[in-house]
Amino acid sequence: MSNTNKNRTTVEIFGAQYVILGTESTSHIRLVASLVNDKMREINSKNPSLDVSKLAVLTAVNAVNDYLKMKDQLERLHSDKQKEKD
């Protein structure tokens, strides 16, 4: 597998540096990392006793929950649009 079309971007999330390799633009990778960092800090402020591993899992659960809600909403909008066409 070739890495020729992939961007390597170093980001900081919750005080730790990560190298992200992806086909998205560097600005997109930085935006994603910033949103993850913000969500981790938000959850940490409400649950300061969580260790980083649990904090990361809760952040992932929140992100997937948001994703599924948006996906369902998009599917409903698409379905409604199809019904209008019929």
Quick summary:
With 86 residues, the chain is of the alpha+beta class. The protein is built from two helices and two strands; from the N terminus they run ββαα.
Explain what you see.
The chain is of the alpha+beta class and 86 residues long. It has one domain. Helices cover 64% and strands 16% of the residues. The chain contains two helices and two strands. The protein has helices at 26-46, 52-85; strands at residues 7-13, 16-22. A two-stranded antiparallel ribbon has the order 1-2. Helix 1 crosses helix 2 (52-85). It is flat and about 55 Å long. The N and C termini lie far apart (45 Å). The model has no long low-confidence stretch (mean pLDDT 94).
**Strand order in space, largest sheet:** 1-2
Q: What composes the largest sheet?
A: 2 strands, antiparallel
The separation of the N and C termini measures 45 Å
Cα Rg = 17 Å
Number of domains: 1
| Quantity of strands, as a count | 2
Q: Which structural category fits the helices and strands?
A: alpha+beta
Question: Low-confidence spans: pLDDT under 50, at least 5 residues?
Answer: none
Query: What does the average pLDDT come to?
Result: 94
Q: Hey, roughly how much beta strand do the residues contain?
A: 15-25%
